[in-house]
Amino acid sequence: MIVKRGSVVSHAMAQQWGIGKVVEVNDIRATIRFSDGMVRKIISSHFGDLHPADPAGYHPPVKAPPKGRGKAPRPKTARPKKGAAGATAQ
């Protein structure tokens, strides 16, 4: 099979990955986004394991909505000033 950007494929040895869409190809490997949510890089010597798939069967993975606004800010605590603890009055 000729692998090119935009092709919809399945991997013969890993059917559990589902159908994937080729997002990048070069002489060494193809980067494929599979419907299980993973992006995998397949080296060119394994292109023979890729087979054309029905484009209607490819469903891009659904991104989970972000949880909250990130980390909560740490509460500020009072810290003693440097040098104030060792100072003595004369």
> What is the gyration radius calculated from CA atoms?
26 Å
- Taken from the alpha-carbon principal axes, the silhouette is elongated
Count of distinct strands: 5
Strand order of the largest sheet: 4-3-2-1-5
- Fraction of residues in helix: under 10%
Mean residue pLDDT: 85
Q: Note the main sheet.
A: 5 strands, antiparallel
Helices and strands: which structural class? Answer: mainly beta
**CATH topology term of one domain:** SH3 type barrels
CATH class of one domain: Mainly Beta
Order of helix and strand elements from N to C terminus? EEEEE
State the end-to-end CA separation: 89 Å
Task: Please provide a brief summary of the model.
The protein has 90 residues and is mainly beta.
